[in-house]
Every structure is written in C-alpha cells, then in structure tokens.
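[SOLVED] Predicted holo structure with magnesium ion

Edit: marking solved, answer below. Original request kept for reference. I posted the sequence and ligand SMILES and asked for the 3D complex as structure tokens.
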Amino acid sequence: MTELIDRTDAAAETPVLEELSMQQAINRALRVLLAEDPNVLVFGEDVGALGGVFRVTDGLQKEFGDQRVFDTPLAESAIMGMAVGLAMNGWRPVPELQFDGFAYPAIDQIVNQVARMNYRTRGAAPMPITLRLPSFGGIQAPEHHGESLEALFAHTPGLKVAAPSDPADAYGLLLQSVRSDDPVVYMEPKARYWDRRPVRLSEPTDPIGTSRIVRPGRHATLIAWGAMVHRCVQVAELAAEDGVELEVLDLRWLKPIDAAGLAASVARTKRAVVVHEAPLTAGLGAEVATLVTEQCFRDLAAPVQRVTGFDVPYPAGPLEPQYLPTIDRILFAVQRTLEY
Amino acid sequence: MTELIDRTDAAAETPVLEELSMQQAINRALRVLLAEDPNVLVFGEDVGALGGVFRVTDGLQKEFGDQRVFDTPLAESAIMGMAVGLAMNGWRPVPELQFDGFAYPAIDQIVNQVARMNYRTRGAAPMPITLRLPSFGGIQAPEHHGESLEALFAHTPGLKVAAPSDPADAYGLLLQSVRSDDPVVYMEPKARYWDRRPVRLSEPTDPIGTSRIVRPGRHATLIAWGAMVHRCVQVAELAAEDGVELEVLDLRWLKPIDAAGLAASVARTKRAVVVHEAPLTAGLGAEVATLVTEQCFRDLAAPVQRVTGFDVPYPAGPLEPQYLPTIDRILFAVQRTLEY
Amino acid sequence: MSTHEPPGRDSIAVDHLPPDLTRALYTHMRTARDLDTEAVALQRQGVFPAYVSVRGQEAAQVASAAALDPGRDFVFPTYREMASALAYGVEMVGYMATHRALWHGGLYDVMESRFGAINAVVGGPVPHAVGWAVGERMRGGEGVALAYFGDGASSEGDVHEAMNFAGVYGAPVVFFCQNNRWALSVPNERQVAGGSVAARAQGYGMAGVTVDGNDAAAVYDAVTEAAARARRGGGPTLIEALTYRVEPHSTSDDTGRYRDETEADRWRAHRDPVALLRAALIGAGHATDEELDAIDARARQRAEEIRDGVSAAPEPDGSELFTHVFRETTQELTRQRRIWEEEVQP
Amino acid sequence: MSTHEPPGRDSIAVDHLPPDLTRALYTHMRTARDLDTEAVALQRQGVFPAYVSVRGQEAAQVASAAALDPGRDFVFPTYREMASALAYGVEMVGYMATHRALWHGGLYDVMESRFGAINAVVGGPVPHAVGWAVGERMRGGEGVALAYFGDGASSEGDVHEAMNFAGVYGAPVVFFCQNNRWALSVPNERQVAGGSVAARAQGYGMAGVTVDGNDAAAVYDAVTEAAARARRGGGPTLIEALTYRVEPHSTSDDTGRYRDETEADRWRAHRDPVALLRAALIGAGHATDEELDAIDARARQRAEEIRDGVSAAPEPDGSELFTHVFRETTQELTRQRRIWEEEVQP
Ligand SMILES: Cc1ncc(C[n+]2csc(CCOP(=O)(O)OP(=O)(O)O)c2C)c(N)n1
Ligand SMILES: Cc1ncc(C[n+]2csc(CCOP(=O)(O)OP(=O)(O)O)c2C)c(N)n1
Ligand SMILES: [Mg+2]
Ligand SMILES: [Mg+2]
C-alpha cells in the first residue's frame, strides 16, 4: 500500500518558520496525509462541516470531499468497528473519538478488535488505523472531557500510543502514526491546542518510540508527556533560578516507551520525577518509574518520584487546578529527590 | 441498609473443616449473602437455571427464586447499567460478566457510571455493586477468555478490586466485597475454580486492603494474586530444596493495595519478584514494584523483578503455557535478584 | 421520509386539561425560558464556562416532567434537562451549579429529588432507568422511571440494550427522546436510519409514540398515558417528541459552520412552545393576559433569584476531591489527601 | 407472540432452483454434517479442547454463504459458522484448527478467503461488515458484506450501532441472524424483546425478512435477493433465519440444566435441514437416491480428510507469540522474545 505513495514533494520543501497552534499543526498533518494517500479517511462525530469541536479537521471536508472526510452517527463503538472493516477493505482510517472519556464505549472494539486483528489473522489483516483522541484535562470542561487513558492503551498488546506536547511534534508524530501499518492511539493534549509558537513543520526523522530531551539539565530528570511537558519546563525554569538544572524529557511515545532514552538521561542525572495527569495508582508513571529503576538501579540516588493526578474522578472547574500536578507539587518532589 | 442485616447466625457457628473447591466456596458465599440481605440480587448471562458457565451460581435460582437470581439478555453494558439503576433503587447488585474479555463492552458503564456515581452525587447515590468476573487464563479457553484486567480496574478511581487465590479467601473476600457499600470488582481465577482443598469457611476478619503471607521466607518476597499465588508457592517449594527461603505474599486486594504489607515483607527480605498473568507494560506489577521501591529504596538489594505475561494478545492452547509466567521464569528472576 | 417537517400548526389546544395544570406548565416553561436567558448571559459574563440552552424545548421538558409523580417516580436526565428539573421540583441553584462547573452532576440531592445526576455520557443513563424500574417492580412499588435522551443518543448501543432489557422484563420505563433534529452538527438525516426514533419501539414489542414536542398538552398527554400504562404493569413506552434545537448545541458551538438558520428561524417564529401555550391558555379561557403577565413577572423574579443564587454559591472546598470517592476511604487516599493539604491546599 | 413455532412443514421445495446449485448445497450441507460429527468425536477424544456444533443449522449457513460471490463479497463470521466457511470455499483444515486451539481466529488466510477471522466477541464483528461495505462503495466496488450473528447477539449494542450506520450510509450489507432459539441457556422469550429480530429492520428503514432457516432454498433466495439489492445500491437487509440449536451450546454445555429436549427432538425428527433438502432434491428430480448416496460418500471422505488434516496439523511455534503483534515490531517486544528464547522455549 505504502509503495504507491509519493512523499517527495512534502519532503523536498525546506520547512519554513511559521507561527502555528498545535490544533493548526495537526490540521496541516491531516491535509498532508489526505493528499499523499488516497486511502486515508478521516471520520468521526462532527468532524465534517463543523470541523470537529476543536476545529482540528477544519476545512478538510471542503478540500477533500465528503467521502474522504465524513461525519458518523453518535456511536463510538461503531466508529472503531467501522474502522476495522474499512482497514480490511484497504483503507487507512483516521477516526476521531470526540473526547477521551467517550473512548470508553469503544474500548471493546479498540482492545478486542483493532489491537488484535493483525495477530488474530497472523498478519493477513493489518490495522493501519490511527485513532485521534483529544485527551487530558486542564480546560475546565464538563465531566468525561478531561481523562487520561494512556495507561489502558499502553497496557494493550498490539497498540502503539503517541502523545505530542507541541505543534511541531504533533505534526511529525501524526504523520508517523498514520503512515504506520500498526494501530496507533494518538492522544492530543487539549490544553495545548491553542498554544501558538513559531515552528517548522517537517517530516519526522526520529523513529517511532523515541523520546526527546526538551531541556537539558543535570540534577534530575523530569519525565512527562502531553501538556505536562510544558508544566515541567516551567518548573525547570523556576528551579534554574535556584541553580537546580532539571532535564525535561518528553516521552512522546507511550508505547513503545523509549527505555534506552530514559536510562541515558537518568544515568546522568541520578534522579527522576515522572509527572502525569492520570490518577496515581496503576498509572503510566509506575511503568516509567519501574523502567528507570530496572535500568538505573545502582545509579539512582533516590526512588523515582511520581507527581500525578490524585486517585479521584476528574473534578469540575475550581477543583481541576488542585487535582492536576501543580508547579509546587513538582518542585516539592524535586526537592524530595535532591534531599533523599 | 446494612443495619437491618442479621449476621449473628453465620458468625456464631464455628466453621468446620470441609473439602471444597473455590467454585463451591464462592457459591456458598453467595448463598450466605442472598440469605442475610434481601436486597442482594445475583444476575448476568446464564447465571439462572444453568448456574453460570462455571456453575458458580449453581442452585441459587432454585433456592432464592428467579427475582433474586436471574438471567439477563446478552448485553454487558446494560448489565452494569442496570446494576446502577438497581443500586439507586436500594438494591445490592451482584452482577456477573461471563468472562474477563467480555467486560470490555461494559467498561464505559463501569468506569464512567459505577465508579463515579457516589462521587458525582456527593454521596447521595452509593453503588454497593460487586461485579463478579471470572478472570485470568490457564484453562486453554477460546479467545477473550483468559484476560487480566486488573490494571484497568485498579487505575479507575472509585473502584475496589479483589482477587482471591484459594477457596477460603474466595469466600471471605466475597462476603466483604458484597457487604461493602463501595463498588468492588471481584476477579475469580478460573484456573483455580476446581482446586479442592480442606478449608474452614469463616467470616472475614482482616480489613479490606490487607494482603496475606501465604508462606514465610527470608531471601526474597514473591508477590502475586489469583492463580499465580499457587505457582509462586510451587516455586518457593522448589527453591527451598536449594535452601532458598522465599516468602510468598498474596496481594488479594489489588485496590486498595496493601502498601504497608508489601513494605514490611520486603524490608525483611530485601528482594522482591512480582508475578502476574497480564502483559508486562503498564501492568499492575509496575505499580507494585514502584510501591515497594518507594518504600524500601534503601533496603532493596536489587530492583524488583517482574515476571509477567508478554506484551502480546493472549494466545491459544499450546502457546498459553509459554505465555504465562512459568516456574522456570520465576526461578530465573529469583536468581537474578539474589545475584544482583 | 423525514418526520421533521415542522408540523406547521401554529396553534395548540389545551382545552381538555385542567386550567391549574396548564397554568403550572406555563409557569415552569416561562421560568425555564427566563433562566435559560440568564444562563446564556452568565456564560457571556464569564460566570459559566459554558452552557447548553434548552430554548425551544421547554414544552417537551416541562410537560414530560409534570406528567410524573415526583413522590414515587424517578427521572434520569442528560445534560440538557434544565426545564425538566425545574418542573420536577429540583432545587435549581444546585442544578445550575453544574453549569458554573462547581460540581459535575449538580449540587442538588439526587435521591431526595428523585432526579438523577446530570449525566454527560450520551446514552449512558438510559440503562440506569431500566435497572431502577426493574428494581421498582421487584419491590412491588408503583414508581415509573423516565429516561431522557436525544436523537443523537438513539444511535448509541446502550440505548438499544436498555430498550431490549425493558421489553424483556416488562419494566415500567418511559423512554423519552427529545428529537431536536440536531446532534451537535449532525441532522437527523445522517443520524437516525429510517428517520424515526419512535418507529424503533415496534421492534422491541413496545408502544411507540410520536408527539409534537412543542405542544405542551400533547406531550403531557403522551407521558401521562405511558406512565399510567407502565404503572399498571403494561411495560415500557418509547415517546419521540419532535422539537427543534433553535440555539447552538452549547455556547461553544458555531451553527454557521453547518446549518442555515432559516429553519431555526421558522421554529422560533411559529413554533415557540411558550408562545404557543400562552395563546392556547387564553384561547381556552384558562388565563387572561393580565394573569399571564403576572406569572411572567414571577417567573422572571424566580429566574433571577436562581441566577443570583448560583452566581453567589460557594466553590466546593478542595478536600471534597477526596470525600466522595468511596463510602469507606482507603489509607492510600488519606495519604494523598495529606499531600493535597501540604502541597496544594490554597 | 413467538415467531418460533416450528414452521411445521416437514418438506421444502427446491424446484425453482438449478439442479447444479441444489446438489452443491446438499454436498456442502452433508459435508458439514459429517465434519461436525467428526469434530464432536475429536472433542471426546481430547484432540479438541471444546467444540461448538453447527448441527441443524447447515441450511442457514450453507445456503447463505452459497448465495454470495466469494470473488468480490466478504463474510464476517462468529464462532459458529463452520458450514458457511465450507460452502464459501475456506481452507477447512485451517478453519478447524481454531477448535484444536491452535490459533484463535483460525489458520486460513482471511483476506484470500474473503471470510473474516473467527470472532468470539458476540456482536463484535457486525460493525466490521458495515465498515467493509462502506469502504466497498467508496471505491466503487460491487462487493457485499454479510455479517453473521445469533439471536443472543441481537441484544448487543454493537449490532444496533452497526445497523444504524448501515442504514444511514446505505451500505451494501446483509445482516444475517441465525435465530437458533437459544443463546447458551437463554431462550428467545427472555432475550429478544418483541420476539422478532427481523422486525427491528423497519426501525432502521431497511428491509427485514424472516425465513425458514432449515429450508436451504428459502435461505438461498432470501440472501440472493438481499445481496442483489445491496449490489445495486439498495442498501442493507436484515434476514432472520429461524432455526434451532439441536445440540448443546458447546461440548462444555449441559442442556439438561435449562431445557426440555422434546422441542429439540421435534426439530431433529421433522426439521432436519439435510434430510429436508435430500427429500426435496429427489422430489424435484434434481438427483436420484444413488447420486445422493455417492455425494454422501464423497462428503464423508472429505470430512475425514479435514479431520485427519486438523488432527495432524503442527502446533504453532512459540515464537509466533511475538511475530504478529505489530507489523513493525518494537525493541521491547524483541527483548521479551529474547527472554522467551532463553527462559521458556521448549
Ligand atoms: C458517549 C458520548 N459521545 C459523545 C459525546 C459528545 N457530545 C455531547 S452532546 C453530543 C450531541 C448529542 O446529541 P443529542 O443526543 O441529539 O442531544 P442534544 O444535544 O441534541 O440534546 C455529543 C456528540 C458525549 N457527551 N457522550
Ligand atoms: C460479548 C460476549 N459476551 C458473552 C459471550 C459468551 N457467550 C458466548 S456464546 C454466547 C451465546 C450466544 O448466543 P447467540 O448469539 O444466540 O449465538 P449461538 O451461540 O446461538 O450461535 C455467550 C453468552 C461472548 N462470547 N461475547
Ligand atoms: Mg439532538
Ligand atoms: Mg442463538
């Protein structure tokens, strides 16, 4: 399938510096994908004329027609089930589920069908499906609009999971995800959709599963993904004022996890804090902490610290900032690890 | 609700030693519960006349009538959704979902409704629901009949999660789960259903969230739940022949996890191996390893070892024994931790 | 074959109903309309982060709720049943608190109100109604459960499973679909295969009824009949109330992207349920213009009181994050609460 | 109002169909019957850990599959479509391998067979058929998707969502329900509200057809018509084939716990689809007793060959645990595979 695709044009252009939000960068990636591969289909609730509730699919239906970009009825399980059937008929589906919390009705199709079909058919029926899922919290939204499902997806054999933290990465990771012949859950940090910054949109070069050092440092490594990367950078800037140099590692790929990248950083810094929005217990932070500990046991000066959402249902407006990892909580954890 | 219940009879009897399988012990617990509390309802697919595909509900419909014990149509989401409504009308639902892998269609109701309703209503609408879920693998069953969903449930705020490993505990934990006013996912290890042993069925005494040392030892702690407890005991017996004394800790409650119990054991043994059937990445083993490491960092002589299912979909018959943690793999891990 | 041509009738009749009742319906609808207007304003002022309007659906909501008995029935709402809540007697400051994002689900007492928590999962609460109803019959009660849902929700698997359960168990449920023609940006034609939600009823062996959702009397009659049937053991009914979402889906929505407003304008101009009922009351001699003006004034006052109440309501304390997770909390949660106290508490 | 009174007719007619076709149907049904018998025996011998019999459903399965075009259509089966697989031309040793638990989903090539992987999630594959069909029309193909499901499966949300999608998109799908009256231990009366799966079709604006599932000719006609309609753009059809599960749900089941066998006995004695078809072939002059005996002998031989093939099939190598998880494997999986090689490999 991929052989037919001509990417020379996109790749040849030297990317220019542009001021773009993540939401625009994702939109641009979708445009590239729809243009380069006639098998790519974008569908979901309200992704057509409306352009999605976050306008991520804005203008795509107009540009590519209502066969390539179309609305579905309001039924998440069927959206993912339809993706399976489309993939079996040679398409490359890029479904959207409108919000993280509404992925739950589709979990059966995702776990029992999408993630397993290649295995079940011993490679006969690959599932080149990318599920776009507006994810995580921080926008004071209604219930079920602020959930973090990465631990569930990462625990599911057969799925890959990406979570970009800035516009340029959002662009590159989406190109990789959709071009991959494996199913990918692509988690978009809603809280960063409107973050505009000067970026060069370019073809991805790092292989799937590579993390990224967003800010180098030597006293401890802060490990995060999605919107928490930005928060960790803020923490690092504050800590730097006190002479503490924190390295910020953006995991980006939550499956496969860049174990080597984690080890390389923490082997240098000897200390690590992992930060995520999801509740603590059985969150992906436990996996990250364990991977770090398994690999850097002798180097570690302190146990990996976890700063996460609390083990409570995602709360409404005024309580949201008290639920999400705050700058203070991350700083306390840094202090604990430094003083251990 | 609980005030009305008379448990003196059950509690007063001195338990006698009987030879019982886990499947019978669970059946007995359900009988006690149905008898002691007129609000307890048992329902699910084929739990009535058939007595469940594992005969766990055998004879209950005959004894308590088809209002208290009843079949449902084949729809997992509605089974859990119905449980919510029944709870709001004062009942104490004990639904069964027929197999672990068929809990996925009900995940939305479990996560977004059952687990949250008490929170959403600020305590007005408690959910004293116990979901009985035949779980885990080891019986060479068809696809979706060997899954381990504990990480997902443990990660869900508002749920408690139990997984007994033998008939006596199965009895006690089920009494506790159903009498609790919080929702509990009670995971029954299918591979141990037919394990008969002499037991005394008695009222539970340890509070919810207490682990249990199944076999004391001093060189390392093996941590497991469900059917893997039995396997760890076998490993400990083998290791003892070589003079290695392994402690086997049955976690039993996968949420809340007995962090203090884990710490107490590993503080003594200095070494830990966690064993589970679920795939490695983001499995509950990561949480257990992290809890141990957080609490015993200075004591630990080696990183906590994980012996788990591989990151692959649960396989069919002949590959199952190669997927599940084998005695050999656990022994290798013990060796690694001893020689670290 | 759309069921949605605006019925065209620009008048309704209430003559067969008691004047007390029709005036009460009018009072609730008028109050809901005013409260809705206040809520939109609060959103513009930044007091509410977002709001979902019920404008144009007041008849469907108020008349359906008023046909129930809040002493023994139980209502399972979605996120758009403000007017139902009002008519059913829910404490409205607590209800509106959800729109100020003070607490998902609202701050009213769900069990005392017999009006379930506000539920944002489309289709999700429908099986709850069936469970409640099955449980009600088992205990020999005479209550009826009413489940609200939208035309979009009718596509969800949960709604089908719930209807099938209700049919199999003969449960006393009223499935009340407000077909406001839109599910966010998607119209009925691309949402409801076959074009009629009510037509699905037959496939479950239950009564299916299509009713003009902007005709308060017609809605009241349909729900009264369905509830009576359920109460006497006749099983579930599916009612589809045809109405129109004249406002955007929520204050975050932009209808300009996906629909022409002429249809909405027609509904506003000719099918406004409050105006229709007002005219019918006068026509039937149930009230004079002056009496209705007095009702309007009281409605406005009540709406303003609720508005002021919700604006002034205290924010929940952060400790409430931890209070309601379990009935019996855990050591781990207590530990986390301590972290919150030490590291977060404002 | 049960749709399930055994139709009573103890004969069927095939006169209107070409003799080649009816003999082919008979051949497949006879082979499936023998293979089924062999499979039950293999389970008793411990070669298969378990088996789900298709006995009594051969007409429903064979005739529906035979009405399709394996060159362009695509079938989405459940776990009980052995006879369909056979009739559709699936490589049967690979198919039966699933019952020896060699590989979930079977060892035949799903894409080459145009017969989806064996799927154990009740209702789960039905939306796949809709997706395939939507995709087929988008690329201008003329293929039709057929989704098999049971009476029990009709209760699942996925089946509803799939039918609604198919209706909205006008997708070329045949929803083929084998109503064998039982979903494990639960009979239709406590499963299918309203009593008829086919009656649900109307609610989606699609054609609904009830057919005698033990009449191969009637099933063939119904599916032929539905597939033709779908192919010419007429959209989906829901067919309910009334049949009976004369055997236990699976070899692990014990029907004595939940049903009286007299009804099953009646179906066995008077409604056996193979016997009915045999008599009809002779009645229509499509074959003589001797010809049919010859077919029977060949069927038996083929069944035995498949039996021997599956009994002798090699077990998959343990490394296959890791081979098909991803198209592009990961370092972590490679590491785990190394652990398997070092610590597990037999
Ligand atoms: C399960 C689920 N999926 C998606 C959403 C996002 N969403 C909220 S409202 C809505 C449209 C609902 O339409 P309808 O059921 O007709 O109700 P209405 O808004 O018209 O009252 C959508 C898609 C949701 N809340 N829940
Ligand atoms: C989602 C799901 N829930 C439960 C099961 C367990 N189960 C397997 S077959 C079966 C009964 C299915 O009945 P029906 O759909 O009528 O098909 P039949 O077995 O009669 O062919 C059940 C409950 C399953 N496989 N999948
Ligand atoms: Mg609507
Ligand atoms: Mg059946």
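OP edit: The pocket of thiamine diphosphate (ligand 1) is lined by residues A 45, 74, 76, 98, 102, 105; C 80, 120-122, 150-153, 180, 182-184, 245, 249 (CB under 6 Å). Thanks to everyone who chimed in.
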